[in-house]
Amino acid sequence: MSKVYNIHTEQIIPISLNEAWDFFSSPANLAKITPAHMGFNIISKHHGAKMYPGQIIEYTVKPILGIPLYWMTEITHVKEGAYFVDEQRFGPYIMWHHQHHFTEVPGGVKMDDIVHYKIPMGFLGDIAQVLLVKKQLQGIFDYRFKAVTEKWGTYNP
């Protein structure tokens, strides 16, 4: 039986809470902070401009060898200006629960991402976690950190 893994990242961005919320709560902006090699593409047509509870967003991603995979997430929780949660309904994981938290700090916004995920295929999934998945997810969040810094600059309290 495979384990439930998690990853937690945090970044302080020198922008207002409203600006952070406007950007990160728009599904259209997700591709802007995702590495191009992932082939991230929103394919749903009726997903809306801003996050709301019950929202379904469909994507294709190419995480391994350029092979496209279908991924559907549901936005399950939203507290305007504070957090939203996306959960996989169909896709590459057995479980995917991604919390996005936004907290106002002096001179900016602290953004926390907390992801819990479970990989299919039992102990083979655990091996894939060690050899591939953990590194790939960390690379995606590292890319995001860099893209956000390039867009808004470095936080200097």
**What's the main sheet like?**
7 strands, antiparallel
Shape: globular
Q: Total helix count?
A: 2
* Cross-sheet strand order for the largest sheet: 1-7-6-5-4-3-2
Question: Mean pLDDT, rounded to whole units?
Answer: 93
Low-confidence stretches: none
- Number of DSSP strand runs: 7
Helix/strand-derived category reads alpha+beta
The SSE order reads EHEEEEEEH
Radius of gyration: 16 Å
- What separation lies between the terminal Cα atoms? 45 Å
Q: Level of helix content?
A: 10-25%
Beta strand %: 35-45%
Task: Give a description of the structure.
This protein is an alpha+beta fold and 157 residues long. The protein contains 2 helices and 7 strands, in the order E-H-E-E-E-E-E-E-H. It has helices at 17-24, 122-152; strands at 4-13, 41-42, 55-64, 67-79, 83-90, 95-105, 108-118. The chain has a 7-stranded antiparallel sheet, with helices on one face. A hairpin with a 2-residue loop joins strand 6 and strand 7. The longest helix is centred in the last third of the chain and has 31 residues, at 122-152. The protein is globular. It starts with a strand and ends in a 5-residue tail after the last helix.
